[in-house]
């Protein structure tokens, strides 16, 4: 027996190693167990990865939902804002229209069916100074209306205190601080202190005082008294009334 033959196993291992077969094959079942053990963490990693992915997906979905909700809320807010702006615009338009309507109705002409005769600041033999008002030629007894609401501050003969040239006259104080005056009247229908409305009948036109013929002498003043007149045609035009 040779020495070689006495160590067959050792020789076999050496031979196997020389043949390039791995240690694993030699150890058999034991090596498989090791492989399985090595595989387990991998499986767990996969599960964890799946779970993580699921969580990430859920999170992404949640974020997307939140973003969508935020966008919807934003859109809703924008819509509400637009609606509010439209409402404000509509209200402003309505207010402007109402103001225009109010303004148009707020001042009226003192008489109807007139012919404009002597204008404001016109010179002539009839007046000591320039003409302080606008004359409306109308038949005696024509209804005279308050050009705007206010309070009667003068009413009576002698121009209501302004002088005999005016004949029977009325002065009304308006809320905007101006005064309107009506002269040469045949009949006076209001007393000082009376509240009058726009267009209210206050007198009948006439030919009293220093008058060359039946007409209404009309003034706009900045005070109740003679000497503070404005151009009545210009004033009324600014209030939407064209004579
Ligand atoms: Zn006059």
UniProtKB/TrEMBL annotation:
InterPro entries: Cell_wall_metabolism_enzyme, Dup_hybrid_motif, M23ase_b-sheet_dom. The keyword Signal applies. SUPFAM superfamilies: Duplicated hybrid motif. Residues 44-71 form a coiled coil. Its EC number is 3.4.24.75. Residues 130-228 form the M23ase beta-sheet core domain. Residues 1-35 form the signal peptide. Keywords: Coiled coil, Hydrolase, Signal. The keyword Hydrolase applies. GO terms for molecular function: metalloendopeptidase activity. PANTHER family: MUREIN HYDROLASE ACTIVATOR ENVC, PEPTIDASE-RELATED. This is Glycyl-glycine endopeptidase ALE-1. It comes from Streptomyces rubrolavendulae.
């Amino acid at each position: 027996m040779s020495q070689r033959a006495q160590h067959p196993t050792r020789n076999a291992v050496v031979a196997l190693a020389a043949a390039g077969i791995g240690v694993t094959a030699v150890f058999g079942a034991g090596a498989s167990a090791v492989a399985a053990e090595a595989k387990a963490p991998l499986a767990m990693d996969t599960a964890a990865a799946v779970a993580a992915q699921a969580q990430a997906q859920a999170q992404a979905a949640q974020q997307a939902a939140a973003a969508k909700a935020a966008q919807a809320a934003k859109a809703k807010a924008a819509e509400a804002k637009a609606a509010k702006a439209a409402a404000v615009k509509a209200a402003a338009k309505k207010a402007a229209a109402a103001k225009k309507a109010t303004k148009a109705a707020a001042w009226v002409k003192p008489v109807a069916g007139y012919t404009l005769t002597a204008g404001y600041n016109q010179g002539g033999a009839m007046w000591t100074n320039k003409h302080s008002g606008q004359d409306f030629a109308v038949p005696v007894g024509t209804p005279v209306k308050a050009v705007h609401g206010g309070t009667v501050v003068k009413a009576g003969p002698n121009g209501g205190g302004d002088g005999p040239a005016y004949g029977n006259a009325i002065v009304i104080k308006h809320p905007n601080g101006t005064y309107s005056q009506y002269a040469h009247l045949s009949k006076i229908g209001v007393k000082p202190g009376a509240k009058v409305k726009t267009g209210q009948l206050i007198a009948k036109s006439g030919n009293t005082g220093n008058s060359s013929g039946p007409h209404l002498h009309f003034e706009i003043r900045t005070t109740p008294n003679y000497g503070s007149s404005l151009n009545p045609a210009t004033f009324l035009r600014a209030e939407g009334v064209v004579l």
